[in-house]
């Protein structure tokens, strides 16, 4: 049985799961589906098109499935789809898709800190940490286990790889491959995300091989194309090497912190 405050507004067409707690002054719109065990703190606003999984916490003043801030959106019905076990802190805004029937997607086990903004059609993977006041533009992809520190700014259509750390205040203007740390403005390669990789049970040998890949890519003073040739010939075969190659070649060798004119 759910606990819904009489001072909250829940649209009669909204679908609410079991053991949901809705505190005073929460707004639940029409065309909303909420799974079991979720908690909504005061002044959270869940708008039409929200699809929410189980055991998520929504803190004061967050707005989920807000209409897109994009001139291309003409009022089409669209969605925000949120998985299980997510924590969404105060005043976070997540916009729904600008395309009819499509969705902005948030995976499972994510921690999204206060005053962050996730724009239309962006996809957040699993176990991602998004720091305070992070701004993510439309149609981005943030892959599993990435960490975006406070006040990072991610430009439209950027893809950030798994196990990546973006340091606070960075402006991400291109794709960021997996396992790295990015820092400064203009954004630059800062090293391997070794501390967090160890927490993820990567071995020292795996971390060393990842670092070897990125010495060729970011520190060899050659073109991205030639760097990939060196990675293929000089680094031992591994799942991590394959993931790095797939990511970079899948994005046509265009990465943040590289000189595109040298490709």
What is the CA-based Rg, rounded? 20 Å
What does the overall shape look like?
A: elongated
Strand order of the largest sheet: 1-4-7-10-13-16-19-22-25-27-28
Q: Estimate percent helicity.
A: 10-25%
Content-based structural category: alpha/beta
Strand portion: 25-35%
Instruction: Tell me the number of strands.
Output: 28
Structure description:
The chain is 17% helix and 26% strand. The protein is elongated and about 65 Å long. It has 263 residues and is α/β, with parallel strands linked by helices. The strands form three sheets. An eleven-stranded mixed beta sheet has the order 1-4-7-10-13-16-19-22-25-27-28. The protein has a nine-stranded parallel beta sheet with strand order 2-5-8-11-14-17-20-23-26, with no helix packed on it. The chain has helices at 194-199, 204-218, 224-234, 239-250, and strands spanning 3-4, 9-10, 15-16, 21-22, 27-28, 33-34, 39-40, 45-46, 50-52, 57-58, 63-66, 79-82, 87-88, 93-95, 103-106, 111-112, 117-118, 123-124, 129-130, 135-136, 141-142, 147-148, 153-154, 159-160, 165-166, 171-172, 180-183, 188-192.
């Amino acid at each position: 049985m759910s606990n819904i405050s009489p001072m909250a507004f829940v649209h009669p067409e909204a679908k609410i799961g079991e053991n949901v707690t809705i505190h005073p002054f929460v707004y639940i719109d029409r065309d909303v589906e909420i799974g079991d065990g979720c908690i909504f703190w005061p002044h959270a606003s869940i708008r039409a098109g929200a699809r929410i999984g189980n055991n998520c916490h929504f803190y004061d003043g967050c707005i989920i499935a807000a209409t897109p801030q994009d001139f291309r959106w003409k009022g089409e019905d669209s969605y925000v789809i949120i998985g299980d076990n997510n924590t969404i802190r105060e005043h976070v805004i997540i916009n729904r898709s600008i395309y009819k029937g499509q969705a902005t997607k948030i995976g499972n086990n994510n921690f999204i800190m206060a005053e962050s903004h996730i724009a239309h059609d962006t996809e957040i993977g699993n176990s991602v940490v998004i720091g305070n006041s992070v701004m993510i533009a439309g149609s981005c992809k943030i892959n599993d286990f990435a960490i975006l520190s406070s006040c990072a700014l991610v430009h439209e259509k950027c893809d950030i790889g798994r196990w990546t750390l973006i340091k606070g205040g960075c402006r991400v203007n291109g794709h960021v491959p997996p396992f790295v740390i990015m820092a400064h403005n203009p954004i630059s390669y800062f090293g391997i995300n070794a501390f967090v990789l160890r927490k993820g049970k990567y071995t020292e040998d795996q971390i060393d091989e990842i670092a070897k890949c990125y010495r060729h890519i970011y520190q060899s003073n050659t073109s991205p194309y030639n760097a990939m040739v060196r990675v293929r010939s000089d680094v031992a075969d591994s799942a991590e090497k394959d993931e790095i190659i797939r990511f970079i070649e899948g994005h046509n060798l265009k990465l943040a912190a590289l000189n595109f004119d040298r490709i």
